[in-house]
Amino acid sequence: MDVFEEIADERRALADQVAALTPQQQATRSLCHAWSVHDVLAHLVMPLEVSTPRVVLAVLLAGGNFDRANERVTRRLAQRPFTEIVDVLRRKADSRFTPPGSGPEAPLLDVLVHGLDIRWPLRLHHDVPEPRLRKALAFVMTAPSGLVPEGALSGLRFEAEDIDFAHGTGPVVSGTAQALLLAGTGRGAALDALTGEGVATLRGRLTPS
Q1: Residues 6+ apart with CB under 8 A from 147
Q2: pLDDT for residue 208
Q3: Per-residue pLDDT averaged across 146-162, rounded?
Q4: In order of start, what are the domains of the chain with their CATH numbers?
Q5: What is the pLDDT averaged over residues 192-199?
Q6: Which three-class secondary structure state does DSSP give residue 29?
Q7: Whose C-alpha in 24, 27, 83, 171 is 20 to 30 A from the C-alpha of 2?
Q8: What is the pTM of this model?
Q9: 7 vs 2, 51, 91, 153, 166, CA distance in Å?
Q10: Cα–Cα–Cα angle for 109, 110, 115, rounded to 5 degrees
Q11: How far apart are CA 68 and CA 152, in angstroms?
């Protein structure tokens, strides 16, 4: 199974899992900024529904600010019924779109992390095959993604307890691969699920006073 097939598999698994969510669950606040579960799912289908030229136009209209453009486009997509968004995620799961300058690891990371943004607060379990988690963690730890403040992950050793993965040198930050993936992309909610002498340093970097 190549990376694009893994991405499609994760999209379908998420669509299947959230299809029966109640309206209250859909409105639950996710781990992603101030977005609800519904909003995050809308964001996940954005590259499947919105062409690159339209995204570029949205960025230009937002004064060159990608984050602001992303929020605006997501907000428009989130006006659709939840069931329609779920259907798009399932029907277009095989899309091989990658952001300019990025390989398939970027959309793999996107669906895994945003899947956790949805599942974590709803306490939904999902087993991710180990190779996918290793690819996503390696991408987070080595690529300048801009997901966390510069240097937030440096000088620390990240060790997964449930898969064969370790990265870096320094005080240890240990936990499940999924918790490490969340912390490595700036989700402070996962910090309490981590152990090791490096956790306090990581917490200070991700949640500055």
Answers
A1: 140, 184, 185, 186
A2: 64
A3: 91
A4: 3-122 (no CATH), 130-206 (3.30.1050.20)
A5: 97
A6: strand
A7: 83
A8: 0.91
A9: 9, 19, 13, 25, 23
A10: 100
A11: 23
